[in-house]
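User: Here's a protein and a ligand (iron/sulfur cluster). What would the complex look like?
Assistant: Let me lay out the input and then the predicted complex.
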Amino acid sequence: MSFVNTFDNHTNCQIPVLEKFKRLLNPVNDEEFEKLAQLSAKITRQNFGYTMRLFAPLYLSNECINNCTYCGFSRSNAILRVTLNIDQIVAEAEHLHSLGFRSLLLVAGEHPKFVSEGYLEECIKAIRNFIPSIALEVGPMETSEYQKMVTSGCEALIVYQETYDRSTYKNLHTSGPKKDFNWRLECPERAYHGGFRRIGIGALFGLSEWKNEALALASHLAYLQRKCWKANYTVSFPRIRPAAGGFNPTHNLSDKDFLQLVFAFRISFPEVGIILSTRESESLRNNISKLGITSMSAGSHTEPGGYTGKGTDDLHYTVRGKRIELHSDDNPNSFCSTQSATEQFEINDARSPKEICEILIENGLDPVWKDWDQSILCSNHQNY
Ligand code: SF4
């Protein structure tokens, strides 16, 4: 039995937390909106104090065998690609460490040739001595493969369903293993059984009607909390940003609705972490950091080698699986003078980690660089 078995009937699920969540998404006037904001802030302080966890994404590779219409790394996009080697990854991680980060999210496209299980294990092992909290956001794996990631020193897995609407999912994922909706939907459960202590789920807003996505995400979260109860959960609501391929969102999630979504999750799921990325603008990030968010990225790059310039010696194009050298006659963009890998999407808040810290402190919050160490679990990390 997994969430896949109940998912198609999730809108009929009448457990109290989901009824409450649904009510919180109803349209509100300004006064009611303000009350929701204050309640969300209060519940956040009660459960998380004045802390704000900081992390950075570290992109390992932008090679990918999937075509996800909304993503810059899609296989059919003629973009500059690279897969960092272990020394380059260590250099990127050391740079982020020098800025204060102790929590990194390793991100990669899905490509069995470049981003194999062995490669990811090597990456984790190479940085675990100085990065205590390592999370992964990569293609879905089997439970046994997740166990290897955990044994290597990884503590968290992030996997977003992108859209919970089956028909939209089918239309947007045109080729590659990601086409399998159920395989992805079961991923958090496999991650749990693989031993991850922290699991992040989410939807990419802009692909389908936002309230339906929110309700499905809340149902998924409620299911995981009931059935896989030993793990900590985070949720995230990334909105589409400009990227190679030029995808335009088909459904709008306004700033006000975005905020109400955060409030609804915070009020309904008081102990769940809510992540905010640099996809959002400076002003929105400044404001909402006080009202429900518990974890933020800062100074992010969404291309491999983006922090140090590493990896430029192996830049190439990969178009429909075929590698094309930068100066080859086959190169569709040989006039292009760009000398860094292509980003997954444009970020919207380019402030440095130091600037983000200053704003958080101005807002009365404590930036937290480190909140986890493997030694907490003594010698056996699976006995949590
Ligand atoms: S969303 Fe992920 S799987 Fe899809 S193209 Fe982008 S990197 Fe590849």
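Summary: The chain has a mean pLDDT of 94.
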